[in-house]
Design a protein that fits this description.
7-stranded antiparallel beta sheet; 5-deoxy-glucuronate isomerase; Jelly Rolls; 274 residues; mainly beta; KduI/IolB_isomerase; RmlC_Cupin_sf; 48% strand; single chain; 1 helix; 6-stranded antiparallel beta sheet
Length: 274
């Protein structure tokens, strides 16, 4: 299996499905965990020197953070319901406790922080929803923690790609600190596929092809994107969801399209000949 795939599996005794740390990924910023919790099961963590965004992927939960309690948050039972999620932001040098009310799947997204902000609930009505692309590149984007909302490092977004469509497309990258043109952001993709026996395809590649992998990803797997372009394809018959976590030295998303496919951004332009 590719080193870029972190395989999901059955939950351990703590409900953890998978874990990505900066050390395990070989980078500096992004951390990610996914949990599936039975009713009454809990997660309790100190945030240390990292800020955290909890994303309620499915189910209902009670969350305590920053001296606040949020009761029975969550409203969708599947990431494939056309609803934005609930999320909770927790700063560095704090702690949180989450208790599942129903069968619950939650993502724990983290990145370096200093603790300058307050914990807060991010309800669905605060999450911007947009349709991006057109035709076979149309997909639904839900901006959970975009750069317009307060955080120190984290950027968090989820994307629903209908069967037969492409997303993160045309291929783009953000692996150079060359502002205002491009930012340097590590990124994880946490994939879900419906029906569950399906798969998604994701390519990760650089201009010089020193990194050039095409990955068949099953539901519950995560993909590491340390650098390069990273488009995703949803095969016919299978809808694909993914949760993106990004972080880097500067909290802004400035991307660079693959020049070979830039023509796709101009409808009606003649296909370039080689």
């Amino acid at each position: 299996m590719s080193k870029l795939i972190v395989a999901g599996g059955q939950p351990d005794e703590n409900g953890r499905l998978l874990s990505i740390t900066p050390e395990s990924a070989g980078w500096e910023h992004v951390g990610f965990e996914a949990y599936r919790l039975e009713p009454g099961q809990t997660i309790e963590q100190e945030t240390g020197d990292r800020e955290v965004c909890l994303v309620l992927l499915s189910g209902l939960a009670n969350v305590e953070a920053g001296g606040q309690s949020y009761e029975r948050i969550g409203r969708r039972m599947s990431v494939f319901e056309p609803l934005a999620p609930y999320a909770v932001y927790i700063p560095a040098h704090d702690r949180f406790r989450l208790e599942a009310v129903t069968l619950t799947e939650v993502a724990v997204c983290s990145a370096p922080g200093q603790g300058r902000l307050e914990a807060r609930l991010i309800p669905p009505e605060k999450i911007g929803v947009e349709q991006r692309g057109s035709g076979y590149t149309e997909r639904t984007v839900r901006n959970i923690l975009p750069e317009q909302e307060e955080a120190e490092s984290l950027l968090v977004v989820e994307v629903f790609t209908p069967a037969g469509h492409w997303s993160s497309y045309p291929p783009h990258k953000h692996d150079q600190l060359d502002l205002p043109h491009e930012s340097l952001l590590e990124e994880t993709y946490y994939h879900k596929v419906s029906p569950g026996q399906g798969f998604a395809l994701q390519r990760v590649y650089t201009d010089d092809l020193s990194l050039n992998e095409t990955l068949a990803v099953k539901s519950g797997d995560a993909v590491l994107v340390p650098r390069g372009y990273h488009p995703v394809s949803a095969p016919p018959g299978y809808d694909v969801y993914y949760l993106n976590v990004m972080a880097g030295p500067v909290r802004t998303w400035k991307f660079h399209n693959d020049p070979q496919h830039e023509w796709l951004m101009t409808p009606g332009q003649e296909v370039p000949k080689r």
